[in-house]
Amino acid sequence: NDARLLVRSEPYPATIRGTIISDIYRENRKSWLFGDYQFTEPARSFYLALDQYQTRTGNWASARGVMRVQIAQPTVHIRSLDRVQMYCILSGLKPPANPGQFDFQKYMHSRGVHLSATVQTSDGICVLDRPAITFHKAVLALKRLAWQGLLSEMPDESDQRTAMAAALLLGYQQTIDLPTNEAFLRTGLSHIISLSGMHMAIIAAIVWWIAKAAGLEKRKRAIVTWILITTYALIVPPRAPTLRAVVVCWIFCAAMLFRRRPHPVNTLAVAALVMLWYRPMDLFYPDWQLSYGTILGILLFYKPTLSRLSQYTLEKLQPLSAGPLPARTLYWLIQILVEMVAVGFAAWFGGSGILLWNFGSFTPLCIVWTILVAPIVPIILYLGFFKILLASFLPTLSAMMSVVILHCCRLFSAAVQWFAAVDFTSFRIGPVAGWIVAAYYMLILIWLLRHHLHAVARRLGYTVLTAIVIAGLVVHLHSRREGLSLCCLSVGHGQAIVLRTPHGDAFLFDTGSISHKDPGSRVVIPYLKYKGIDHIRAAFISHGDLDHFNGLPEIAATGFIKTVYANTTFIDRAQSPSAPAQLTRQLNQYHIPIQPIPRILNSDSIQIRSLWPTDAVSLSLSDNDRSEVLLITYAGKSILLCGDIEVAAQTELLKQYPDLHADFLILPHHGSTTNLVPHFISRIAPGIIIASCSQSRLSHTCLPTSNQQAFYTGRDGAVEIKIKADGTYNTIGFLNSQ
Question: Among 173, 306, 540, 694, which residue's CB has the most CB atoms within a 10 Å radius?
Answer without folding.
Answer: 540
